[in-house]
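Let's inspect one such protein example.
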Amino acid sequence: MNNLVTYRKQFGDFLFSADGQFDGDKGSDGSDFVNAGVRYKTDFIYIAAAFYNKELEDGTDENTVGVTLSKSFDSLYLAAAYQDIDKDDADGSTLDVVASYAINESYKVKLGVSQYDDGGNDVTSKTYNAYNTTLEWHLTPMFRTFVEYQKTDYDYRETNDQIMIGMRYNFDYKF
């Protein structure tokens, strides 16, 4: 990227990261941004926080603050993430909480709850609460299939129920 500066430094279990793009009077409008974060990662826990500021093309700023936390308990994995997004006149947020449990080497069940608030308060808003349950079948370490049910309960729209069936193959190719 043009005029991009990146800095990363590891201090034991802490990682600090900062990125910025500054074009001054050159380049396209809305390309200036600053992103900075810190992560603490051990075998016990994972915690991270970040701040993002971007100058938008209309001259306003978008500011986002996010935090995440995850923890493994043998076969059980728990994680949560929160973002606060301030963009122009809208102040929105997201919250995601997930749990995953490995039943055995072949099967895993996942549960998730999400809350999305776009800051709107009328029929144009896409604010919702979502809930999902997934069952994965790991045929090999690289290939898995899944069936998932998701319910999305919108504040200003009809509730949406979905059943998804799919497969995933992980490629491990090194250049």
The chain has two domains: 1-59, 74-175. The chain has no helices and eleven strands.
